Amino acid sequence: MNPANNAVTADAQARVSQVWTEVLDCPPPSADQHFFDDLGGNSLLAYQATVRLREALGRHVPLKLLFTAPRFADYTAHLSGEAAV
């Protein structure tokens, strides 16, 4: 991975962490925490988090992604383009 990709990953992680913290009213998530099982998320909160991330990142973020990659590290990896959805 080149340094530019590291910056994208760090930026995505910071933004996702901020949004999840706000939407779920929780401390910043650790890499292995699950949006639904560990942090108390539900479908409405998933929608709210997705909309906020779309606005924060200025690009399309599929709602489906949170259901297919609900762990923080997996979700941010997908957003950074390191994994295929």
Could you walk me through the main structural features you see in this protein, from its secondary elements to its overall organization?
By secondary structure, the protein is mainly α. It is built from four helices and no strands. The chain is globular.
Report, as a whole number of angstroms, the end-to-end distance: 19 Å
- Give the overall shape: globular
Number of helices: 4
Regions with little confidence, pLDDT below 50 for 5+ residues: none
Quick check: average pLDDT?
Answer: 89
Structural class: mainly alpha
Strand content: under 5%
Helix content: 55-70%
According to DSSP, the number of beta strands is: 0
The largest β sheet comes out as:
none
* Element order: H for helix, E for strand: HHHH
Give descriptors for this structure.
globular, 85 residues, mainly alpha
Question: Summary?
Answer:
The protein contains four helices and no strands. It is an all-alpha fold and 85 residues long.
Task: Tell me the layout of helices and strands.
Elements: H1 3-24, H2 43-57, H3 63-68, H4 72-79
Helix pairs in contact: 1-2, 1-4
